[in-house]
Amino acid sequence: xxxxxxTTLVRDHTVYACVMGSRAFGLATDGSDTDRRGVFVAxxxxxxxxxxxxxxxxxxxxxxxxxxxxxxxELALRANPNVLECLHSPLVEHADETGRELLALRGAFLSRxxxxxxxxxxxxxxKKLEADVRTHGAxxxxxxxxxxxxxxxxxxxxxxxxxxxxxxDQREPLLAVxxxxxxxxxxESWLTRLEAEAEEALxxxxxxxxxxxxxxxxxxxxxxxxxxx
Length: 229
Hints:
Largest sheet: 5 strands, mixed
Radius of gyration: 19 Å
CATH topology of the largest domain: Beta Polymerase, domain 2
Number of domains: 2
Order of helices and strands: HEHEEEHHEHHHHHHH
Number of helices: 11
Strand content: 5-15%
Distance between the termini: 23 Å
Oligomer: single chain
CATH class of the largest domain: Alpha Beta
Structural class: alpha+beta
Shape: globular
């Protein structure tokens, strides 16, 4: 699809938009970017052509990324951390009727699968940090901070059944990590403790074993039908 057409989809068909990244996490500082994420609904007739609409669009603004609704739902049903957190951002910039219904479905996407998806992602990020330490003598402290934040989020989701994005009273300890004021062995110990706490929380989590795929699919079908007419 031509770039201009993709841009038009985001401009004219966005149903939900929010701010993510450090600003949503409560970790913004003076130099922080403003990361915007959104969901657009490609008009149903576009799917009747050989050339399908894009599943995602990067831009048109800097630090802006949007998913087409179906792709967004697929990723959320797989408990993709970035997508689930997007649905729970405290900084919503736009939500039309479809967007508000999507937000009302947040609980349908949450399940115990989040333990695997969050911890698998965290494991990969920890390996990268460990490689940095071996190569450069120190990790990328900003990445270390965000990994700690992610594991806190996963642990608390498993404990409570609710996904909270803002770090609250953990802001200053996490920013100290970003500034390199906490040693790598201390960060390693913190990471290991959070991983163990998430594992322990899994055994008694209130989350359902699986997401409510039928409820999400019913929503998607209704949106597609409405767009077709």
